[in-house]
Design a protein that fits this description.
The chain is an alpha+beta fold and about 450 residues long. Helix content is about 25%, strand content about 40%. The longest helix has 17 residues.
Length: about 450
């Protein structure tokens, strides 16, 4: 019996067991991860997962259960468990299935060549990255890690309101972590490349970029404490976007855990800043025709030229906030229920070239790496942050000496308000999810150093 017919049977069985509404989420996926070290395959892991989860509603109570065992006994048991869980849940008037369904877009999500590529070609790509990085400079001491990973997944979602949708998505990426040494000084650099097939990857460029980042930082020293312009490279900007994304979910706002709470319709950034969540972005890592509960994906302008226009809603937070879902219900797998989260979340690139942006700085700091941002270094409620940073100083519009062991601190809202230039080099970071940023410049920030 096909998965599609099984899902319909599960819906019927759930309603027969007492559910007023029901939803079934089916997922199967295959992941490959390859790590190479010193010209050899260090590890090769292929993992397959397949499972189904059922969400049921009764008297504004919700229950959930899942299984990877598709036997009749197991399916019957998981349906019964979901309905029973709903019976003991706390009643909440905002619980229920989404109303907006159907008319799904069909973005290109899968390249058949990814599934057809032999594992030997994937290994060769990783080994080539290691070789290119090592050959970049005699200062490159070692390539600490090269990783290739891909995922191919199928999703089918059905509910008792007549929703029925499915899609297949494939992504791959490769990353490299390099160590450079000069005397006793050791510095690191990393880079990555991603796409929907191996043909879209740029392994040589990524390897050289990682090596260059490490070599460039050799000889880095503390800068003196001061206030100065700060330029964030895309990889660091993407990390900041992850913090802003959390604060721009309706769930965080409704719980009073967001620095944007109470600011809808207000200017929260400079007119250089626009931030978008786009579930339909053609090359987006999180692009899909619908979200985790079946609402059609869409493009949502959250901040436009500094003005806060919207938050990210799933159906629950939309009902609670008397708004419409923005298609931001997210599920990490069949084991989880939907929660509001970003799709492809990014700062909109500007019309300035990176060289031009850097050229406008008389004396400032170019941030290449930060530490501590995701482990308490930034407070999404107050907006206060303080992180360690490494990079290069800018003098008279040109890169000068490398800088390390400094701290940049301030408030996230103040930082957004002081953005005075945004470059045109939007870049996403696949290891973090689907967050992207171009290079951008902040007029002035506090830098603590020597």
């Amino acid at each position: 019996m096909s998965a599609r017919l099984d899902l319909k049977a599960m819906l019927d069985a759930a309603q027969e067991a007492g559910a007023e509404e029901a939803e079934v989420f089916f997922q199967d996926s295959e992941n490959t991860t390859i790590k190479v070290y010193h010209g050899q395959v260090d590890s090769l892991v292929t993992a397959k997962a397949k499972g189904v989860g059922i969400r049921t509603f009764r008297n504004h109570q919700v229950g959930y259960a899942y299984t990877s065992d598709f036997s009749r006994e197991s399916i019957r048991a998981v349906i019964q468990a979901s309905v029973e869980n709903a019976g003991v849940g706390t009643p909440d008037e905002f619980q229920g299935l989404p109303v907006t369904m159907g008319n799904y877009p069909h973005p290109p999500l899968f390249n058949e060549t990814l599934a057809e590529t032999p594992v030997e070609e994937k290994i060769e790509l990783a080994l080539r990255m290691e070789k290119v990085a090592l050959e970049y400079s005699d200062k490159v001491r070692s390539v600490d890690e090269v990783e290739y990973a891909d995922q191919i997944g199928n999703v089918t979602l059905m509910n008792s309101r007549g929703l029925e949708g499915s899609y297949k998505r494939g992504t791959c990426y490769a990353s490299v972590f390099v160590l450079a040494q000069e005397g006793d000084d050791v510095q690191t650099g990393y880079s990555f490349t991603y796409g929907r097939s191996l043909q879209e990857l740029k392994p040589v460029d990524a390897a050289r970029d990682a090596a260059a980042n490490a070599v460039t930082l050799l000889g880095a020293r503390q800068a003196r404490g001061q206030e100065a312009p700060v330029v964030f490279r895309p990889e660091v900007g993407a990390m900041l976007m992850a913090i802003f994304a959390e604060a721009l979910t309706a769930d965080a706002v409704q719980k009073g855990r967001s620095l944007f709470a109470g600011k809808l319709g207000q200017m929260v950034a400079s007119d250089q800043v626009s931030i978008i969540d786009d579930g339909l972005m053609p090359d987006g890592l999180a692009t899909a025709p619908f979200d985790g509960e079946g609402v059609p994906s869409r493009r949502t302008e959250l901040i436009e030229n500094g003005k806060l226009l919207s938050f990210m809603y799933d159906s629950y937070t939309a009902r609670k906030g008397k708004a419409k879902s923005t298609g931001n219900a997210s599920r990490s797998s069949y084991r989880s229920t939907p929660v509001p989260a970003p799709n492809n979340f990014f700062m909109v690139p500007g019309g300035v070239k990176v060289e031009e942006l850097i050229g406008g700085v008389k004396s400032g700091f170019y941030v290449m790496e930060v530490s501590g941002l995701g482990s308490g270094g930034a407070n999404p409620i107050s907006g206060d942050f303080s992180v360690g940073a490494t990079g290069r100083w800018i003098r008279d519009g040109r890169f000068a000496e490398p800088v390390r062991e400094v701290t940049i601190a301030g408030n996230l809202l103040n930082m957004l308000g002081d953005v005075d230039a945004v470059a045109d080099d939007l870049k996403f970071v696949p290891m973090m999810g689907a967050f992207g940023s171009p290079t951008f410049r902040v007029r002035k920030m506090a830098i603590s150093g020597a």
